[in-house]
Amino acid sequence: MGKRRIWSFQKKEFVLRIIYIDIDSCRPDHLSCYGYPRPTSPVIDSLAQQGVLFRNCHTSDAPCLPSRAALFSGRLGINNGVTCHDGPASQLRYAGRGHFHDPTRPMWMRYLQKAGWETVCFSGFGQRHLAWWFFSGFTQNFGNQLPGESETADEVTEKVLHWLQQNGTTDNWFMHVNYWDVHHPYEAPERYFQRIRDLPCLPYPNAESIAYDVQHYYGPRTARDWWYESGWQNAQEGRRRAMPRGNPDTYENYKGFVDGHDAGIAYIDEKLGTILEALEKLGVRDETAIIVGSDHGESIGELGMYFEHGNACEGTTHVPLIIYWPGITDQAERSVESRAIDTLMYQLDLAPTMLDLLGMELPTNWDGISLASQVRGSVGPTRDHLVLGCGIYSFQRAVRTERYRLIRTIHSGLYPYEPLYLFDMQNDPYQTQNIATEQPEIVAQLDHLLLAWLWQYTTGSEGVRDPFQEQLRAGITPDIYCPRWRIEERLQALGRDDQLADLRAHRDKKPALRPW
After folding, report:
1. In 3D, which of 277, 289, 80 has the Cα closest to residue 176?
2. Which of 83, 244, 295, 327 has CA atoms 20 to 30 A from the CA of 66?
3. Domain Sulfatase N-terminal: where (predicted)?
């Protein structure tokens, strides 16, 4: 073990290394430390035991591109311009003039870089989404050495280990490591499937709820229409396992999908263990902060969607966040209760939290707040609600309070979505009962919060244009991954005339620029 260094928050002198493990599409309730019955994440669990675990962390904007734009820029999607995967709402609003970055709202990797930190990226994400801003502020970028499509945890970890051998004992570096394997098409090696296949998973969805979804939902990535297209290549023999070829329209078929999701977590967890072992051998394990997070979760049955991130339900926006910070979170006297933090938070709160822990001055125009006090085990600022969005497959915004989740559908895409949902998250965590008509007062309260939020960001001298409205004015709908004609042909060919008529009725409804 390396000799522990002492950090002084008064002197603001630190020698530290930070690794951010970014697991794509990882639902927190599929990690053992968040209560999942399957042992998917023993390494992550051990970090949680020495760190802090945030129970109510949400990405402000889902899915992949909007989420990372928000996290990296420190700004909500309505501010940075990215709420979708294509069209005007996929273009980052550059914070600055000419060739100068705005120092009040920097990309936080660039902020670290200007403070003298080496910043290193192991991710093909920028190539995958043609998002070149993603690499802003990284001193070294190894993303171009990765396939940029579905690189495996082995391929990513190999490059990480090589870099650590060359540079791991130097001071003041930040590393971003992005793993893709929890995102479909679920191609983890077979041994990880064997580890979890026969073990129980969550009580929802179940055979009854899946049968209901088969009858009441249609559209891409639903129980009956998951495979709305063909052409995905089979997995390479001996290296990867192909996804189930059937739809998750029975519980048995669903199990094949959830096994793939969980096997991906187990695969990544083991590779994280390999990285921690390398740090141990280098003598810097107890001098390196480890942060584990995800860009978004997955809807697994919520609003009829399976193993995709195309609505503003809890499954999509809720993300894990675990922070292990040596010298702060690993104190032996730290109580178990202080290690699990329940406050509502945006994922983009991570950037000011991390800089605060480093003793750095925080940029003045980020949308995030520092939760460093909670990481240290004391009382800190809290939020009483969040406004969350999703911009592929459907356009939706949600208001999340401690108890309720209101969802407003701006454009339903190819789904039979209602304009309004209200869910009691304490009594209905999987969002199966829409209680909007029974609770008009709660709806009015949360609608007021949503309207006030929109007013705050879209009016006045600093007001911005709502990216969703820009998208709709450009005539761009959320069904970029599945043309409408494909689902219409499928419904017609299968004799599902009632659902075809319903889809066409939704098509003929012009979405309102304000959904209420």
Report:
1. 289
2. 244
3. 18-360
